[in-house]
Structure formats: C-alpha cells, structure tokens
Amino acid sequence: QTEFFAGELSLNEVTAGIDLAREWGAGFLASPLHLALGAAWRHENYQIEPGEEASFLQGGHPNRLGDPAPPPGSQVFAGFQVPVDEGRSNFGVYTDLEGSLTTQLLANVAARFESYSDFGEKLTGKLALRFQPTRQFVLRGAVSTGFRAPALSQQFYQSTVTNFMQGEGGEPVAFEAGIFPVEHPAAVALGAEPLDEETSVNVSGGLAITPVERLTFTADFFYITIDDRIILTSEVSGPAIEEILDEAGVPEVQAARFFTNGLDTETRG
Description:
Low-confidence stretches: none
Strand order of the largest sheet: 1-2-3-4-5-6-9-10-13
Number of strands: 13
Largest sheet: 9 strands, antiparallel
Radius of gyration: 27 Å
C-alpha cells in the first residue's frame, strides 16, 4: 500500500488585549458605578498546503468498470491542489457601564466597535435592566445586537472530492464535486457573490419569584434573529452545470458547491 501526502490545512492566530475596570461613587445613583474598558487586537492566518502530485493526478490507471476513465487521486479525496495563504487583522474596543438607577432598578449598557483589515467596521451594543421591587420578586430583560464576519476558511477553502451516483444499469458512476471560494470563476459563474457579515438581534426576559425561603421559581424567554447566515450550498450538477464549469476552466469537475449568505433564522424558547 502506498501513501501520499494530500496536503494540510492550518489556521494560526495571534492575540493581544487589555482590560481596565474601576468603580466609583456617583451621587445621582443608588450604588457605585462600575466602568469597564478594553481593547483587543488579533491577526489570523489561513493556509492550505497543496499535496504531492500523486495525490491528485490521474496517472493513467484504467477503469475496471469500463469507460470513462476513473477519477484522479489516490482516494476519493484528491489532494489539495491550490495553495492558499491569506491573513487579516482585527482591532476592537469596548466599554461597559453598570449601576443602580434606583434602589430597585439596576441598568447595564455596553458597546463594542470592531474594525477588520479586509472587511470593514461594525458597532454593536447591549442594554440590560433588572427590576426588584421586593426581595421576593425580580424582573429582568436585555436586548443586544451582534455580528460575525465571514471566516477566512469560508472565503478561501477549495477542494475536490469523488462522489458516486447510480448509473442507468445500476452500476456506480464516479463524478468529481468541488467546493469553490466565492471569488473563483466557477463559483461566480454559478451565481456566487462576496460574503456579507452575519448580523443578529437577541432579546431576552425573565422573572424570579421566591414565595418562601430557599424556594425560587424562575421563567425566562429568549428570541434571537440572525440575518444572512453563511451556509454551504447544496451540490448542483447536471449537463448545464457541467457546461458552466467547463467554460469556467474546471472541465474535470461535474458538480459544485460554495458558501453563501443563504438563510435568515429565528430562534425562540
């Protein structure tokens, strides 16, 4: 049995950050004011190291089932063929304030600003309130926004695998299926567009009741919406797809997938 090096994926990160916190009395509040400030820097590097040629070449071996020629590669997963070396930096700052507006009402406000070297800027925030009119009863609620930039792997991953389908006579028929970055000519020809960020809104609320000592009942509700979730498309194939892929410069591939902002979701519970 001969083994071939099929390539390697790697993601490296370097991070640095600082956090500061202080508490001081504020005459207009019912409790000391808590202030937190922070900043963070992160650099990411995503790499695909191609495999040796024997892991993805068709070396002339025959198809024991007849024509056409069998797919390339030492296994159903051909080695990585295209080198990738992509990086980006991210810088973020945040602030957080918390204090009792009255003896019964606690408030928390937070904001975060992030800037990506390859993506852009985004501001998110949070507001939370806690109301306790008596020792036995508490109401709480919060609303926040969020976002997630496309991962480097979602933007630049590329590979080809061998799949099988049933032929007209019931025999297995092999075909090549590729996952292409959104900027690859094959993905663009199939309708891929540059990835956007995922954005979210999170709303939650709840209460706690303590009728007697050491017995507490709680009830909570949450609702989360996420727009433009990044997913991998289903595999598209067929004669029309093969023609598009051939014109895009990958005639050896008969089916394709790519990442897209394909879903808006709601979660509640």
